[in-house]
Amino acid sequence: GIPIDKITEACDRFPKQQGVTFSYGTAGFRTKGATLASTLLRVGMLAVLRSKKLDGRTIGVMITASHNPAEDNGAKLIDPRGEMLDPTWEAYATTVANAETASDLLKALTQLVDSLKIDLTKSSSVICGRDTRPSGNELNDALQMGIKAMGQETVELVDLGVVTTPCVHYAVKSRNLKGEERKAYGEPTLEGYLSKIADAFNQLMTGRQSTSSLVIDCANGVGFSALEILKPMISSSLPIELVGTNIDDPAALNSNCGADYVKTGQRLPPAMTDILKPGQRACSLDGDADRVVFYYLTTGSHNAPEAGGQVQTEGKFRLLDGDKIATLAAGYIGDLVKQAGLGDKLKIGVVQTAYANGSSTAYLRNAGLPVRCVPTGVKHLHHAAERYDIGVYFEANGHGTVLFSPETIDILAQFEPSTPAQDTAAKQLRGLISLINQAVGDAISDFLLVEVILAHKRWGPEEWDAGYEDLPNRLLKVSVADRNAFKTEDAERKLTSPEGMQAELDELTRKFEKGRSFVRPSGTEDCVRVYAEASTEPGAIQLGKAVQDLVE
Ligand code: NG1
Ligand code: ZN
């Protein structure tokens, strides 16, 4: 049976706050850090059970609240191949987290062990990591107590310390490989991870060294610690300049900086103001370094169809978001596949959500690339992308990666080129497989991918940006009495409830040229989100406002 005394003792040490309900959502558990210790204790116990259920394979736990304020925190479980937790276990996580007393918890755990026929004598293995948040230390103590209480002498526990989210995903995947396979993939540590992607990057940049530097906003978070290690590893290929490096002041995390600040406000982080020169590339990571957006200041004129052609500007802020990264990556990889002569064999597809700018979708379709729209949340995108030989997925906010199917990896490994050009293209593709995190989107691996592509195309940010012009858009957060009253279909693009609201929304949208709008309940915050897009800036604002009024 389960170790009753140990669990009871641990429960007394980290009691659950009465009356608080926790729920394992799109991003795992997420709320104020101060309320989460009892949850982390239970997450630890659950991780051990999941590992035992899977024959002792390693499970991961990351403690982070990503782009949210410093006082928030959260936790998510990571499955053996480095992917998000199996959805059926999300429900178990919620149940266990809400067990009020030690006896409730014992009951919930026993039920799980019985119904899933978990053999408790099996060994188990858990890897954990946390971001820079001050509450991370206590939550990590609670997590480890949970792991040890449940695992006893049969648990192997590796604490990676303060690391990025993608590093934990990578380490879980690596740990579950054996011998030669692990050697080829990379060692399950932060240094192992960074040296793997640095080697791939330097290889891909051979002969294409970047002369100008990339300025990176680390959101005053854990990305800075990782980039300090990476910086010397890649300095001969790419000089980087770091801002947003204040990880000692907890209040600075994600404050006036970071990917979310830049994307939602469509503005430069203040720390960049005196540093970034027109035409220079810059990017912002979020608090746990799993998402990235690029931007730059214009050097002269830029194309603005909404204003009737070329507009003279200098120093105007221009955002290059997840959609721009997806189009850049899909276009480049598509060209490589053709150059390798594999165009008939390997099919590329792009996965987006409803938040993708309409111009990006039109651009991809025009380029002949299949595009699929799925509900918000990385797990949906990841799943859909796995169905292509090469699946490119990005949320507009910068979460994303490129997946190469196992068959694609085999085809490229065994590929026998007929020409030097084919050889070069295939080598390039193999290099990208090592550079790109296949388990989960990673800000660091993603910005290196962008740099490789720009260097090969000999493009600056303005050439990249010229592909298409974003439609003006607004994303609004609206408080409502009950967000669960809002139900959607068609990948969240249509409301089925409240009744009649979709018809009204359609009528509003029709009034605007290129008008598009949708409403959905947030999976991470207590609000509904309104997205509106139109051919002009005032149009997007007006449509957004009208839909907000309809929803409120
Ligand atoms: P919600 O709160 O469900 O809109 C937000 C982001 C998602 C995703 C998750 C997880 C938007 C509009 N929504 O989800 O894309 O990143 O957080 O972190 O950006
Ligand atoms: Zn994040």
Which descriptors would you attach to this protein?
Alpha-D-Glucose-1,6-Bisphosphate, Chain A, domain 3; alpha/beta; 41% helix; 19 helices; 552 residues; binds 2-acetamido-2-deoxy-1-O-phosphono-alpha-D-galactopyranose; five-stranded mixed β-sheet; 4 domains; single chain; binds zinc ion
What can be said about this structure in brief?
The protein has helices at 4-13, 37-53, 87-97, 102-115, 136-151, 165-175, 179-185, 190-204, 222-234, 258-265, 322-339, 358-366, 378-385, 406-413, 420-435, 443-457, 461-465, 501-510, 537-551, and strands at residues 29-32, 58-63, 72-78, 124-130, 155-162, 214-217, 240-243, 282-285, 292-297, 301-304, 309-312, 317-320, 348-352, 371-373, 390-394, 400-404, 473-478, 487-489, 494-497, 516-521, 528-533. The protein is built from 19 helices and 21 strands.
Structural overview:
This protein is α/β, with parallel strands linked by helices and 552 residues long. The protein has four domains: 4-162, Alpha-D-Glucose-1,6-Bisphosphate, Chain A, domain 3 (3-Layer(aba) Sandwich); 212-306, Alpha-D-Glucose-1,6-Bisphosphate, Chain A, domain 3; 323-439, 3-Layer(aba) Sandwich (Alpha-D-Glucose-1,6-Bisphosphate, Chain A, domain 3), CATH 3.40.120; 473-551, TATA-Binding Protein (2-Layer Sandwich). 41% of the residues lie in helices and 19% in strands. It is built from 19 helices and 21 strands. The protein has helices at 4-13, 37-53, 87-97, 102-115, 136-151, 165-175, 179-185, 190-204, 222-234, 258-265, 322-339, 358-366, 378-385, 406-413, 420-435, 443-457, 461-465, 501-510, 537-551, and strands at 29-32, 58-63, 72-78, 124-130, 155-162, 214-217, 240-243, 282-285, 292-297, 301-304, 309-312, 317-320, 348-352, 371-373, 390-394, 400-404, 473-478, 487-489, 494-497, 516-521, 528-533. Strands 1-3-2-4-5 form a five-stranded mixed sheet, with helices on both faces. A five-stranded mixed sheet has the order 7-6-8-9-12. Strand 4 (124-130), helix 5 and strand 5 (155-162) form a beta-alpha-beta unit. Helix 2 crosses helix 5 (136-151) and helix 11 (322-339) packs antiparallel against helix 15 (420-435). The longest helix has 18 residues, at 322-339. The model has no long low-confidence stretch (mean pLDDT 96). Pathway: Nucleotide-sugar biosynthesis; UDP-N-acetyl-alpha-D-glucosamine biosynthesis; N-acetyl-alpha-D-glucosamine 1-phosphate from alpha-D-glucosamine 6-phosphate (route I): step 2/2. Mg(2+) binds at residues 66, 286, 288, 290. This is Phosphoacetylglucosamine mutase. It comes from Filobasidium floriforme.
